[in-house]
Amino acid sequence: MGLEEQQARRELNRALFLHDHFPGVWQLCQAGLLDGYRASVIADHVRHSVSDPLQLKGIGRVRPPGHAAAPAGHRGVARDRPTPAR
Prior knowledge:
By secondary structure, the chain is mainly alpha-helical. It is 56% helix and 0% strand. It is built from 4 helices and no strands. The termini are far apart.
């Protein structure tokens, strides 16, 4: 098995993992809003740190931006606005 084949197999496994367990992250990748490196960091970190299938299912409920309603009273983080001086 050559290096290219191993890399292709790893990428396929990551894509399948994201598709099956993190459909929101997978949609971000398909839309070009999340690059492959960051997606691989998400997939690898979760795959190697979560062993409980129920916990994995709960973590995987990630929605793309614009599709998730913020909790009541949640103000979020304004990254594009300067921090006011005190």
